[in-house]
Every structure is written in structure tokens, then in C-alpha cells.
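subagent[fold] <- orchestrator: predict structure for attached chain, return C-alpha cells only, no commentary.
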Amino acid sequence: IEFFVDVKEVNGHEHYVTLNKTITPGEALEIEVGAGETVLIPFTPDVSGTYYFRSSSERDTYGYIYNSEMMLLEENDDSGSGDNFRVEYYLEAGELYYLGARYYSGDVEGSFDVLLTLGLTWEMTENGVLVISGTGAMDDYSWDASPWYEIRSSIVSVNISEGVTSIGSRAFQGCSSLTGITIPEDVTSVG
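subagent[fold] -> orchestrator:
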């Protein structure tokens, strides 16, 4: 997936910077941000799933996710390490979104890295196999909150792909037809 950087005026912010760079999941993109500026990066995911946008800076940063009409979907200040943002949101394939990144303080300028990663995705095959793929840890769920809860009685087996590092609590609760799970070596914890 490649996303091209563009600039728009949003929600009264005065200054934007156009970058001729791309951002690719798993690879850091260094952005230059002037005092009072917000950088907007348009992107259209090829795959639906939870995406994570993180900053890596020694200074306090702030991040946003907007839909194609520039309506704010999610924002974050300090959920990343230190004073870095970590914005998380479920994005639909083929839809246009914007990532906004800036320094928290309007008088700070410089550069910092933004990283895009795709969390876990899932799909159900016609023969009842739930395939879970992506990179990272699976969330823990309440008894009725797994993403596949509505189809739980149709799940015959689960195939967890390489890259998944944990199986969340109650992930397969209520899967009454489940007869087997394929777990890769990458999984280091269950529940």
C-alpha cells in the first residue's frame, strides 16, 4: 500500500505542508513540520482493518484521523511512548482517509517520523475456516465482543497466520462448532 501526501486546510488550521513522499505500512516516513503547521497525509487502504499511526519524536506530537470529508474520526496526544501519539482506528478498504500530524506546541518546528501499521484482519472462508492474519497481538475480548462473534457458531476451524503474536482472552468463546486451531510459532501468549 502506498499513500501519497497532499495538503488541505482543515478545521481552521492555517498552515499545511505538501510532501512528495509516500508512506508504506511498516516503514517510517520522516515529515518536516513547521511552527503551527499540520501535515495531512491522504491514504486509501487496500485492506479493511485496524490501522495504527504512531509518531516517533523527542518532542510532544499530536495525531488525527479524518474521513474523506475531513470529519474528525480519532485524535491522540500521548498514547505512544513518551509524548508521541498513537492513533488507532478501523478503516474500510477503498475509502479515503487523512492522517494529520503536528507538534503539540504551535511554536515548535522540526522533523519526526510517522509509522503506519495494519493490525490484525480476519475473514471467514466458505467452508467455515476463520483466517486471522496481520502483525501484532490480538485484543482481549468480553464474552460477546470478538469481531467474529456474530458468526461464531459457523466457525469450524481457525487458522492463525505468521505475524500474529498472541491470542486474546475469550477470542473463541461461544464457537460451538470449533474443532481445531492452527497456531504459528509467532504466538507467545494465549489469553
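orchestrator: received. Logging for downstream: Residues 54 and 86 are 4 Å apart (CA to CA). The longest strand covers residues 110-118.
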